[in-house]
Write a structure and sequence with these properties.
This protein is mainly β. It has a single domain, classed as Beta Barrel (Porin). It has helices at about 1-20, 40-45, 60, and strands at about 75-80, 85-95, 100-110, 115, 130, 130-145, 150-160, 165-180, 185-195, 200, 225, 235-245, 255-265, 275-280, 285-295, 310-320, 325-335, 340-349.
Length: about 350
């Protein structure tokens, strides 16, 4: 069964690599916040986490990874992005019997207050609005064999501003396989599988019969509804291994660990790209991390505008009686958009 899974994954990837894309996919989906990475550790590693086991951030990167979590795991993450965007993640995993686990996670993006402008008042009207996006997901994962775990998440998605709201449901699917070859783990994730979303509101300014100055007058009550748009369906395939460490098949070491991770991701609204990461950890207490994301694999005529770049970070762990906590930080370069700082606090108990 494990060999069949590996062959199927490779065939799917090969078919996509050789597919001819005559029409550009750039900018063809919405709910873009679902593509932003979570967790300072993952961000420092260039977002190459699909085949890495760890904590509750696995709910986002590859839900199958949570099956290996042995204690309750709680992670809170805050990403201070460009143009004052704040992106937050909360994840909790509860391990169950027989190699299974359940989890819940929340993603929340907030733009902060922005002033309303019009043609007549381009400097601002004195009114403010904000863009808010969030999703809430419930997950389950379990080991089918001692090497293969599978998982799934169902989530509710909502985003909008100024009376215009879009919402929908989506599913994430994941698989994680310990190949037994030099300690390599193979991860597969498909996220945001769902129907299209559409913005609509019966209370849209300028469309409810009042002359509000936001786009004209419609005397009769009406419903402002936009064209529907797809979710950012994303396929990820990754590998990871401990080059050095307690469980390494290459260079066993009790105090030092060096993990290499890599993955390719292929969203429905962009081009196939690769991410890489390297993590060094000393005595399960202190970690140094570096990575690079967004390396073009297929031809991308817009590559010069890509925000993919380097990242790095640090992490510390400490245990007090039954409680173990982990504090992580990551710095990410987004080129023309500027820099971002990511902070995570995790607990195991």
């Amino acid at each position: 069964m494990e060999k069949k899974l590996v062959i199927l994954v490779l065939l799917l990837l090969t078919a996509d690599l050789f597919a001819q894309k005559e029409v550009s996919r750039i900018g063809t989906s919405g709910a873009q916040f679902l593509k932003l990475g979570v967790g300072a550790r993952a961000c420092a590693l260039g977002e190459s986490m699909v085949a890495v086991r760890g904590d509750a951030t696995g709910l986002f990167w590859n839900v199958a990874a949570i099956a290996s979590i042995e204690k309750k795991s709680l992670v809170v993450s805050r990403n201070e992005l460009y143009v004052n965007l704040n992106y937050n993640f909360l994840g909790f995993v509860l391990p169950l019997k027989h190699g299974s686990a359940v989890g819940i996670n929340v993603l929340y993006l907030d733009s902060g207050d922005m002033e309303v402008t019009t043609v007549d008042q381009p400097e601002g009207t004195g009114d403010f609005f904000s863009w808010q996006s969030y999703s809430i997901g419930v997950s389950y994962a379990r080991f089918l064999t001692d090497r293969l775990s599978l998982g799934a998440t169902i989530k509710y998605i909502r985003e909008g501003t100024f009376g215009e709201i879009a919402n929908g449901l989506a599913v994430d699917l994941g698989a994680l396989l310990d190949t037994g070859i030099l300690g390599f783990r193979l991860g597969l994730n498909m996220s945001n599988i769902g129907d299209e979303m559409r913005f609509s509101s019966p209370k849209a300014p300028g469309y409810n019969g009042d002359d509000t100055g936001y786009g004209g007058i419609i005397r009769e009550k009406s419903l402002l509804q936009t064209q529907s748009y797809p979710l950012p369906l994303t396929f990820r395939l990754g590998l990871s291994t401990d080059l050095l460490g307690k469980h390494s098949q290459i260079m066993p070491n009790q105090k030092n660990r060096l993990t290499l991770s890599m993955n390719a991701h292929d969203p429905n609204d962009s081009f196939l790209r690769a991410n890489f990461g390297l993590e060094y950890e000393w005595n399960s207490l202190f970690a140094l991390r570096a990575g690079y994301r967004g390396i073009a694999i297929e031809g991308d005529p817009m590559d010069e505008y890509s925000t993919g770049s380097y990242s790095f970070g640090v992490g510390v762990k400490y245990a007090i009686d039954f409680l173990r906590f982990q504090l992580d930080y990551a710095f990410m370069d987004y080129k023309v958009l500027g820099n971002a700082h990511h902070f995570s606090l995790g607990f195991e108990f």
